Amino acid sequence: MKKAISRKNILQSAPAFLKQTVGRLLEPVPVQWLLGRTFREHRERLRSAQWWKAEEARKHQLAGLRAILALAYERTIFYRRQFDAVGFQPHGLQSPEQIRSLPTVDRNVITENLADMCTKSVSARDVDQISTGGTSGSPLYFYANASRSAVEYAYLTSSWARAGYKLGMPMAVLRGRVVRADRDGLYHEYDPLLRHHHYSSFHMSDENMGRYIEHIATIGPCYLHVYPSTVAALARFLRRTGRQAPANVRGIIAESEIVYPEQRQMVEEVFGCRYFSCYGHTEKIVLAAECEHATDYHVWPIYGYFELLDEDGQPVTTPGRRGEIVGTGFINTVMPFIRYRTGDWATYVADRCEACGREQPIIRDIRGHRTQEVLIAADGSEIPWTALNMHDDTFVRVRQFQFMQKMRGKAVLRVVPGKGFGEHDIDRIQRNLGRKLDSQLMLSVELIESIPLSTTGKVIYVDQRIPQGGSAAVPGRPV
Ligand SMILES: [Zn+2]
């Protein structure tokens, strides 16, 4: 899979000895300088943007929409055809709401029209081909600007600042990265550029979790950057073993999975600090974060244009009613996502947060493809399904997939093959997943024609059949 070199990933691909040497040299340099100008400019803009009055935000949204819609119209076959069909003129856009005359798109539309949706040659140096491996069980491939990570990191760190995070503070990260054991057998790796301590979320046995906790206690005032399921596993472990949480953890930033209120409360009690959550997508459509005082999500005004639509496609404006999150992203100018249905649903709260005064759409209870399903390793530890969401070419030519597990340490990956799928695809899937799973779980691949939905019509990512009590917790349930 093609991936442009950026400041954020250049060190990740470097050999360990080089990382350490470069890391020592970089240690005194402030992180905002290491991350480059794009990052700094966005950070600076967001400092004031989050406090814009609604009218001010609308002006910027209108400008953002005009720019992305004009680009899509002028440079892509797909959107020109779509806009012409309804007589839509992007230059004549007078208010953000006028985009409602355009049809929405979903992941199927993207997959079918990929070649006609790009604004430039996808072989350009500054274009990445990326995927959201598993969301909704059907992999999605698309193209995006290589610079998107710096922009997104500016948004994320600006959001985390509301929980007290300061740039350059160490982070203890448990988010599905492949981390090999070091000489002492500790599954830990240090990224000196971002000052991130990565721990393996594929090796969450009691012994390893105990070592993670001991190590975290030595890295100074820090934040945990986690999936809700990985931090819940750590908190349960601490509670079960009667150990104290490290006192240097200043806050917990949990992303990429559904957040259960009971779980948040339990984790906050165990760690004795704030649990803070952000909502976003690999597709870079909408980004929302909690604030200093409240746990509802505040939608960033200029990351993209946000809509919340009911079953009939009408905007939800009544507090307490639910709608699907639909977004028009401003960051990806290689392949515009215009009125993209995310498949995530949320409850509308207000257009202003009473607690902090920010004039932004406020939503809560986001539900959709973000689950907390887990696979159970041979030693009984849990492996979060989210960690197996591959952002590379693992699931290319796969239409849909699902894990099925009947016993610890073993699982069947059911695959609905796409066009041209063959033996070499099975080899690649087993190789790539095997690299992450590191013998914790033996995986066999089974080809099937379709994957049934649950009785409530939801996609199930892990058809978990290990009897209750077979693991530390009931898979997929909050604790
Ligand atoms: Zn607020």
Furnish the topology, listing elements before pairings.
Layout: H1 7-10, H2 16-26, H3 31-34, H4 37-49, H5 54-75, H6 77-85, H7 107-113, E1 127-131, E2 141-145, H8 148-160, E3 171-174, E4 188-191, E5 196-199, H9 206-216, E6 222-226, H10 228-241, E7 249-254, H11 261-271, E8 274-279, E9 288-289, E10 297-299, E11 304-309, E12 322-329, E13 340-350, E14 362-367, E15 374-376, E16 382-384, E17 398-407, E18 410-417, H12 423-437, E19 442-447, E20 462-464
Parallel strand pairs: 3-5, 3-6, 6-7, 7-8, 17-20, 18-19
Antiparallel strand pairs: 1-2, 4-5, 8-9, 9-10, 10-14, 11-12, 12-13, 13-14, 15-16, 17-18
Helix pairs in contact: 4-8, 5-6, 10-11
The structure holds zinc ion.
Please tell me about this protein's structure.
With 479 residues, the protein is of the alpha/beta class. The chain folds into 2 domains: 1-103 and 144-303, Rossmann fold (3-Layer(aba) Sandwich); 374-464, GMP Synthetase, Chain A, domain 3 (2-Layer Sandwich), CATH 3.30.300. It has helices at 7-10, 16-26, 31-34, 37-49, 54-75, 77-85, 107-113, 148-160, 206-216, 228-241, 261-271, 423-437, and strands spanning 127-131, 141-145, 171-174, 188-191, 196-199, 222-226, 249-254, 274-279, 288-289, 297-299, 304-309, 322-329, 340-350, 362-367, 374-376, 382-384, 398-407, 410-417, 442-447, 462-464. It has a 12-stranded mixed β-sheet. A 4-stranded mixed β-sheet has the order 19-18-17-20, covered by helices on one side. The protein has a two-stranded antiparallel ribbon with strand order 1-2. Strand 4 and strand 5 (196-199) form a beta hairpin. Helix 4 packs across helix 8, helix 5 (54-75) packs across helix 6 (77-85) and helix 10 crosses helix 11. The radius of gyration is 22 Å and the shape is globular. Residues 469-479 have low confidence and may be disordered. The site of zinc ion (ZN) has 8 residues, from loops.
